[in-house]
Amino acid sequence: MHVLERDVSLPAPRERVFAFFADARNLERLTPPSLRFRILTPGAIEMRAGAIIDYRIHLSGLPIRWRTVIEAWEPPGRFVDLQEKGPYALWRHTHSFEETSGGTLMHDRVEYALPLGPLGRLAQRLFVARRLDEIFAFRAQVVGELFGP
């Protein structure tokens, strides 16, 4: 298993930042355009424990369907999404929002594992870790622009 952790300080109230992330449709804004991320779940998505979100991404040009289940929903402090179906053997993403004197500290913790044993470990070293770093750097840039001064 691998763990990726990132922190972003935002000069905005925690409730406002959490509300942005509570709208699943905003995931498209937070994902690099190269992944061609699209939510497939029709209509409004009520975020709560047990909510299911279906979407599609493109990895190396190949379309991949992904299903996420909201495992924990604790506004405005945190929520956890768990991949039920998708490219990873495990993907658990904990989103935490801590109130600070300057606004909000947003913390992402992703626990993930790749399938295919030795091939998955090779993919992790060759490109997966780097690609995830790029995705979370993009995400930090977007939220910085949205909630910055």
Q: What does this protein structure show overall?
A:
By secondary structure, this protein is α+β, with helices and mostly antiparallel strands. It has one domain: Alpha-D-Glucose-1,6-Bisphosphate, Chain A, domain 4 (2-Layer Sandwich). Helices cover 30% and strands 42% of the residues. It has helices at 14-22, 27-30, 117-147, and strands spanning 2-10, 38-39, 52-59, 62-74, 78-85, 90-100, 103-113. It is globular.
Task: Compile the SSE list and pairings.
Elements: E1 2-10, H1 14-22, H2 27-30, E2 38-39, E3 52-59, E4 62-74, E5 78-85, E6 90-100, E7 103-113, H3 117-147
Antiparallel strand pairs: 1-7, 2-3, 3-4, 4-5, 5-6, 6-7
Beta strands, count: 7
Largest sheet, described in full? 7 strands, antiparallel
Strand content of the residues, in percent? 35-45%
Give the CA-CA distance, first to last residue: 37 Å
CATH architecture: 2-Layer Sandwich
User: Overall pLDDT, averaged?
Assistant: 93
Per CATH, the class reads Alpha Beta
Shape: globular
Domains, number: 1
- Proportion of helical residues: 25-40%
Computed over alpha carbons, the radius of gyration is 15 Å
Unreliable stretches: none
The CATH superfamily turns out to be START domain
Structural class: alpha+beta
Spatially, the strands of the biggest sheet line up as 1-7-6-5-4-3-2
Question: What sequence of helices (H) and strands (E) makes up the elements?
Answer: EHHEEEEEEH
